[in-house]
Amino acid sequence: MVGVLRAAGEPTRLRVLALLAHEELAVMELSQILGQSQPRVSRHLKLLTEARLVERFPDGAWVFYRLTSDRLGRAFVDQVLDQIAPDDAELNNDLERLEAVRQGRERDAAAYFAQNAPRWDEIRSLYVDEADVEAAILTAAEDRRFARLIDLGTGAGRMLTLLGPLADKAIGLDLSQQMLNIARRQVAEAGLSGCELRHGDIFATGLAAGSGDLVIIHRVLHYLNDPGAALIEAARLVAPGGQLLIVDFAHHDLEFLRQAHQHRRLGFSDDEIARWLQTAGVDALSTTALPPTSTEGLTVKIWSARKAGGAPALSPSALAQRSAA
């Protein structure tokens, strides 16, 4: 306990804890926000890690930090932060600089998506055979009909055109208007009149809880500053008995993807996804790995999760077929 108190009882380290309460951050981002050298910030983080108040996880050449997932340690951090005055000038300045870091990320991502939207499928095809991935997604979705599909971060709308024929209604959300324009064209050409495209934030969709019996996040998490929060919002949208599908890359070391393609995270491990799903209140059903065709490629993984509370929802057409049978 003395070690824990010493770790938290220092101004810079207290500022670090307050920042990590908002999202996981890389060392260089913390250095930028705190206005201190990276070696100095790293020493503070080492003490906080040794006291088990924060967790360190390397991701390629970057190292990220987040608040501890240990229940007692997190309770201690929350109690300490609750004692800080909400109008504390220094911490509020830190939050303003954090917001500037976020806006910088968003500007870079928006510029990237605007530039590459017309050839999005071409870029994705560099990593893994799309036909194999899509076949595996259909298998994971059990190729059954759904009342309502929700595609978070829909991009060019490929998941809508793939899974939309299985759904009575579908919604695709994305922050990029350029991507949404492409998705609208793709959906129209596929003749999917039940698909709706919306400009929306994956962290705060504005959709009702339990409004989708299939929710999919297809190759989106590696762009996000807080993938765990996105999964919690996605799980909120899953109806009792419904399914959540996560499609993304397994952890890798292709560092160039950060600069060339705005990847914030270099894939994810099964343990990391499982921990987030547990926090989100859904149970992982299965994991499918699709290795690349070349040594330079990326392994695509599909994590399938189910929300407890009932049988999967069936679409009206599926119900009619069951009644006829």
Question: What would you note in describing this structure?
Answer:
The strands form two sheets. A seven-stranded mixed β-sheet has the order 6-5-4-7-8-10-9, sandwiched between helices. Strands 1-3-2 form a three-stranded antiparallel β-sheet. Helix 3 (27-34) crosses helix 4. By secondary structure, it is α/β, with parallel strands linked by helices. It has two domains: 2-84, Orthogonal Bundle (Arc Repressor Mutant, subunit A), CATH 1.10.10; 120-324, Vaccinia Virus protein VP39 (Rossmann fold, 3-Layer(aba) Sandwich). 46% of the residues lie in helices and 21% in strands. It has 14 helices and ten strands.
Secondary-structure topology with pairs:
Layout: H1 2-8, H2 11-20, E1 25-26, H3 27-34, H4 38-50, E2 54-59, E3 62-67, H5 71-82, H6 89-116, H7 120-124, H8 130-140, E4 146-152, H9 158-163, E5 167-174, H10 177-189, E6 195-199, E7 212-218, H11 227-237, E8 238-249, H12 256-261, H13 270-280, E9 283-290, E10 300-306, H14 316-324
Mean pLDDT: 85
Which class do the helix and strand fractions yield? alpha/beta
Main sheet makeup: 7 strands, mixed
Note the overall shape: globular
Beta-strand percent range: 15-25%
Give the topology string: H per helix, E per strand: HHEHHEEHHHHEHEHEEHEHHEEH
Q: Spell out the CATH superfamily of the largest domain.
A: Vaccinia Virus protein VP39
CATH secondary-structure class of the largest domain: Alpha Beta
Amino- and carboxy-terminal Cα gap: 66 Å
Number of H- or I-type helical stretches: 14
Number of domains: 2
- Number of β-strand runs: 10
Q: Order of strands side by side in the largest beta sheet?
A: 6-5-4-7-8-10-9
**Which architecture name of the largest domain does CATH use?**
3-Layer(aba) Sandwich
Oligomer: single chain
How large, in whole angstroms, is the Cα Rg?
21 Å
Low-confidence stretches: 312-325
